[in-house]
Each structure stands twice: as C-alpha cells, then as structure tokens.
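[User] At your convenience, examine this fold.
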Amino acid sequence: MRNNGARLFRLRGLLFAALVYLLLDYPIRATGAFGFPAGVGIKNFLPFTGGIFLGPAGAAGCALGAAASGALAGTPKMEILAECLCALAAGLGSWLGWFSMHRDGNVRLERARDVGIFLALAALLSAACGGITAALLGGSLFLPTAGGYLSLGILTGLLACILMGGIFCVRPPLPPFCAFTEDIPVLLSPDSPDFDAVNEAIEERARALSIPLKRVFEVENCLEELYLRLQKKLPGAEVRGGIEMGATISMRICAEGKKANPFLREEGDDESDLAALKLLRHRALRASYAYGGGENRIHIVV
C-alpha cells in the first residue's frame, strides 16, 4: 500500500510540475511578447523549487512541461532539448545538492547559512544550464540562460522555498542517503499517555529557539485535543509522530485503525467536543488529514 502511495505521489508531482511549467511558459512563448531566448522566462525558478520539493518527479515534470510547451509553440527541436536538459540538471542538482547538506530532510531557510547554500546552488546550477545551452545552441546564449535561471531562482525560487518549507512545512521526498529527523518524537499510548514528557521536551526546545510560551501552549493544547478526539473515534489506538519547531511549528501524528478524521464534526459530539474542534481550527495555520494503508495521518502547522 505504501509503495502504491509513493508511486501515486511521484505521478502527481510529475504531472503537477509539467502543468505549472506549461501554463507559465506557453502563453509567453506562443505570443513572443518578450525577446528572450525560448529557454528563458519566469518558468526558470520551477526546476529549483520543484526539484527540492518533488524530487526527480519534479525535475522530470519540468522537462516534460518544457517539451510540451516547445512542441505546441513550434520551437526548434534542439532548443527544446537544451531546455529539457537544463530543467533536469537544475531540478536534480537542487534536490541532491540541498539534501547532501541537510540530511535530516529540513527545508527551512531560516538561517543565513541555509540561504547561502540555496544561493550557491542556484549560482552553480544556473552556470551549468548556461553551459548546456551554449554547448548545444551557441556560446552567445550562455549569459542570457545563466542569468535567467539565476535571477528567477533567487527572486522567485527562494521565496517559494521559504513559503513551502517554512510556512506550509511541506515534506519532500528524500534521496536514499537522507532520513527525516523530528525535533521531538511523539508516542502516546492509551494505557498511560505521557503528555508531561512530551510537553517538557516541547518547552525545552522552545526555550532554545526563543519561541514564545503562548505558541508553546497552543501546540501542547492542539496535541492533547487531537489525541482525545482520536481516542473517541478509535478507542485504544496508539498515537505516534513527531514535532518540528522553528519559525512555524509542524506536528505530524498518525493512528492506525478505521478512517477517523478528527477535524470533522460527528453526530455524537457534545459541546466540549465542538469547542475543542473550533479551537483546533482557530489555532492551526494549516491542517490536513489523509487516510491510507490503514493509517490516519494528521498534519498541523501552528
């Protein structure tokens, strides 16, 4: 089941990246509104962002979008080939380069060091894209191509990565040499749910990061309310997961059993249940629920 889920995620990622690339590129390419080479445009940030957050599927999707856009606009085949190779190089290079420096799976650009790594990768890969284009189409295209990838990678790609990694806390696919590491593991057994230990770990980490106590209490309260709602729907279920703390706080938990969405109102909910549900919805910047493989998976960003 999990393999099927991973394949579906890759397929969706490929199609999504291809569609976004096509929509950003084809209208400009078809009208010829700008005098840039075919491989240069606002779409140049997508391989960086898509590569980091969608992995090889994102890089391949950008290449597919470039091929589709070029074919529809009647772009010469060598120009299409050069653009596809650039998309693959920038996408795969971003994915492997970023996670070789962040083997815990972190994509939070909150520190100057992380921003510097992104900028260095963008510069290196932009030069590589310029070299690919120059080798296939002529040396005069090196600077326009490298400049397009670098400028859009910084102006748009950096902002997109900050939003997706730091605000929405999207979890990307990782290379084989990486593994996700949560700041605080969560394991709550129905026999004796040890909230004190989890809360103590949250507060200790928050002090180290200078996170206000108000937000700490919000996270602790969300975790407790989610646990209680899951126990009501899935009596005796073990709740496990992890919490990542930074500018935003991301909490991912799961519980095995039948489908039980804790964010939905049930007929048997009393006033306290409805108050807890409203509290969860009010405090979460982003909340999502998914069910698959016999697992209820919840993600909340506070």
Summary: The beta strands are 184-188, 239-245, 249-256, 286-292, 295-301.
